Amino acid sequence: MVVLEAHVIHVNVSALRNKLRAYLAKAHHGNYIRVTCRGQVIAELGPPSTPPDDAAAARARLRGSLVYFDDPCAPVIDPGAWDMER
């Protein structure tokens, strides 16, 4: 797992304890929180991961849904149909 430093918040234990609810909300929204004690990282909090079953179900729903066009510049509908739509 790759964590972008832009989404990492460093907080010491006492600040985390005082505003735990706010930091948990930040983790829920995708931020990672590194908890420090005397300058050393002692724990990391982050958003929940997607269960593997959910990811597999999403891939199964999407499988075969991609539409291929042999000639992407060709009209999608018959040009005479434009007059019918007016």
Question: Could you give the topology of this structure?
Answer:
Elements lengths: L7 E5 H6 L1 H9 L3 E6 L2 E6 L6 H11 L18 H5 L1
Parallel strand pairs: 1-2
Antiparallel strand pairs: 2-3
How would you describe this structure in keywords?
86 residues; alpha+beta; YefM-like fold; 4 helices; 3 strands; elongated
What does this 3D model show about the protein?
The protein has 86 residues and is α+β, with helices and mostly antiparallel strands. It has one domain (1-63): YefM-like fold. It contains four helices and three strands, in the order E-H-H-E-E-H-H. The chain has helices at 13-18, 20-28, 52-62, 81-85, and strands at 8-12, 32-37, 40-45. It has a three-stranded mixed β-sheet. The longest helix is centred in the middle third of the chain and has 11 residues, at 52-62. The chain is elongated and about 75 Å long. The model has no long low-confidence stretch (mean pLDDT 83).
Shape: elongated
CATH topology: YefM-like fold
Stretches where pLDDT falls below 50 for ≥5 residues? Answer: none
Determine the mean pLDDT.
Answer: 83
Largest sheet: 3 strands, mixed
User: Strand content of the residues, in percent?
Assistant: 15-25%
Helix amount: 25-40%
Radius of gyration: 25 Å
